[in-house]
């Protein structure tokens, strides 16, 4: 039987131990793996591997030894409780062995859990699970996690006191991060809030969310955007000593000033524009970017982007004679002076 995305979310949380099997397939291996981890944990409990109630079989091994899966399905365990035989990264070459095990399955056997990449509608594996009366097939697509999924992830991590604005911020973050990065962010949040029973606020999320640039780059770009020209030289020297290149610095500056321009040029004003940024920004960083966008305004930011584009072209020019970092430093000072101009 085929499960829809909404039906699948409920099934992953409470799988049926009496079913013959489950196929989880999708193009994003991380999303598939996270769902597989969830369903196996819910089906077998926390000590399945220690109690030898879970058999792991690489899909490629079934080509050389087709009986491997059927043996695992029929094996009698030493410990009581539900059992599962998990086939990882199955392809069409593993289909004969999996289909045989599915046909031979009987009540009391280990449940067959199979993960695979993207499968066509004509796939033998997909057809077998979708047409089986006692098995399920679920396609995992690159959709952002639902609110229910986010709430479940937070609950599993022990984070329960989440107000509405923080949940909104987490939903925006989940929509822009990959599933692995979002899962790691929640783990960091759980450690960050350990022993702290207060509400999860935006500053907590900002402290744990992955940053798109290094902190040192953020420092120099904020100094430039805020017109503090006297601090630019020492910061750039420090970054150069740490191995930062002129090209990477100019690329980051372009990105930062394009972000400011996107806010400042929004028809609804910077306060509305910052809410449309992807990936979203939170907490103190959001306030800082908003202040910078309001202070610069769209016309001056257009000039700033022109300066950065000209500098980028000069860096990449075959006829460049000046030191690359000196060109960047001069451009940054020009921008800082422009920020202070009225």
Write structural notes for this entry.
By secondary structure, the protein is an alpha/beta fold. Helix content is 57%, strand content 8%. It has helices at 5-13, 29-44, 61-64, 67-74, 95-104, 124-131, 147-156, 164-176, 179-192, 202-208, 215-225, 232-241, 246-264, 270-273, 283-316, 324-340; strands at residues 21-25, 54-58, 84-90, 111-116, 135-139. It has a five-stranded parallel β-sheet with strand order 2-3-4-1-5, with helices on both faces. The chain starts with a helix and ends with a helix.
Give the key terms.
five-stranded parallel beta sheet, 57% helix, Rossmann fold, 16 helices, Zinc Finger, Delta Prime, domain 3, 342 residues
What's the architecture of the largest domain, going by CATH? 3-Layer(aba) Sandwich
Query: From the alpha-carbon coordinates, what is the Rg to the nearest angstrom?
Result: 27 Å
Level of helix content? 55-70%
Uncertain residue ranges: none
CATH class of the largest domain: Alpha Beta
- Kindly estimate the percentage of residues that lie in beta strands according to DSSP: 5-15%
